[in-house]
Amino acid sequence: MNHNPHEKRIHTQIESVSEEGLLSKALLETGQLLREHQINIEDFRGKGKYDSDTIAEHLAFVEQKKRKFEMSATDESRDSQELATIFEGMFYKGAHEYGWLGDPTLVRVIKTCDFDDLKNGIDGIVEFTQEGRGAEHLAVGVDVTYSNQLKEKFKKIKNDIAEGKLSSIEYFRSGNFIGSLNNVPRVIVGAERKNLIELCRDVFVKKDSQKLKRHPFQVLQLKQMRLQLDAFADYAESLGKKDVAALYRRDAEIIRKILQKKSVGEGVRMGQWENDRVFAAIKQELENLK
Fold this sequence. Notes:
The structure is a single chain. The protein has 290 residues and is α+β, with helices and mostly antiparallel strands. It has one domain (5-287). It has helices at 5-16, 19-37, 52-72, 75-97, 114-120, 148-162, 193-206, 209-213, 217-238, 242-265, 277-287; strands at 107-111, 124-129, 135-143, 167-174, 177-184, 186-190. The strands form 2 sheets. It has a 4-stranded mixed β-sheet. A two-stranded antiparallel ribbon has the order 4-5. β4 (167-174) and β5 form a beta hairpin. The chain is globular.
């Protein structure tokens, strides 16, 4: 059987891109993408409650948090933060360019400002627009670890549900709206390092947009979200927090329909992604809720 020499050469090039080189490229591209589309605190200055003192205080908080991280950062924590940035950029890029969260004209990811990221642990907001209804929102935190960090994030979500309050985003803008967003259900999405590297190879080296539109990674994300939304709704229900449960169920239904369209309608399968260790850690944390 004759192999096409051109194809063979491309394949060799793909395999020869070093992990370090690949991650550097991915970090550069995703970091730039997120910065370009991030909500900017300065746009809120002088509007409503956003006076100069409040904004100065919030910017100082961000500066302090970043400085603290720089002073105490280890190689491992830097690596973890870089991987989280790459994953977050992939989550954004996948939604907007490849329709990983459904039709990009109806679903979009809004990148939060540094203040909401560092203060509230929310990396992005998924905005769903449904015909005949207003936009609905889901807060997303990103995690690429399966360690205590994940435990802490789940603990915060549990505590918020127990207190009957959900995530708040201080700085939010969409269309003509500019202000705070309150009572937003929240989930964690992530992938382990090995799979994230594989995804980087597919997105930044192979760059086959037709294959990327059918990438199994999107089903992993959607399943993580759906399992959490269902579990948090049940948890809220068990604590008698019916209003909170209703918000989680509303988003669970939206995600369920998107997932069904992907897996049943389009036949996108998870394959080996089913064994992702962050996914396993998320499932374990949800078991602990029961």
